[in-house]
Amino acid sequence: MIDAQEFLGRAVAAETVGAAETVVHESDADDVDACREAALRLLDAAPRASGALRERLIAKGYADGIVDEVIERLTRVHLLDDRAYAESAVRYCTGRCMGRRGTVMELTRKGVDRALAEAVATEAEQRGDFEDAAWELGRQYARKTRGLDVAVRRRRFWSAGGRKGHSPETLRRVAEELLN
Fold it and tell me: Which of 23, 65, 125, 145 has a CA that sits 20 to 30 A from residue 155's CA?
């Protein structure tokens, strides 16, 4: 398991590595070994969901069947684990004070299957992770907006909470407690 800081660091590294990647020669498009090497390089740069890895490999020019075979093999040997990736991403998102809706959107954007994203988010919601994230966001906005009119404080908090994907009920509770 990786922590949120390492997750972010690898994601930034992947962006810089990804910019320098080249497209596969036609002779390598059906080469399982070349595809596996490319997949391992991508995974070495940053953890990825199988959907995101699949998109990257196909964009590089590898054949669909070869990519599917490589992803299946990497999953079988536990080098690719969508659930572990999703759980790590949820921890990262809650660390950024994101809510359930925002987290699910982020996971699907990063190539996690929607059903898995919903399941992992539900587990995090049951543990109270998103509630804690909303309270932390509320504390941040209470500090930032100290001395401003109550209506302005609430509006700024509600805007931030909505952008981060928190539920209105949670935002209402936090605002009542912290921004009066």
Answer: 125
Report the pLDDT value the prediction gives residue 120, as an integer from 0 to 100: 98
List, for residues 100-112, the tens digit of each pLDDT value.
999 999 999 999 9
Do 10 and 71 fall into the same domain? yes
pLDDT band at 22 (very low <50, low <70, confident <90, very high): low
Q: Is residue 43 part of a domain?
A: yes
Split into its structural domains, the chain has a count of: 2
Pairwise CA distance, residues 102 & 105, whole Å: 5
Are the C-beta atoms of 137 and 97 separated by less than 8 Å?
yes
Please report whether residue 102 resides in a domain: no
Question: Containing domain of residue 59, as a range?
Answer: 4-80
Q: What is the pLDDT of residue 16?
A: 44
End-to-end CA distance of the chain: 40
> Which of these three, 47, 80, 113, is where a domain ends?
80
Domain-embedded: residue 172: yes
The whole-model pTM stands at 0.78
Residue-level pLDDT at 137: 97
What single letter denotes the amino acid at residue 77? V
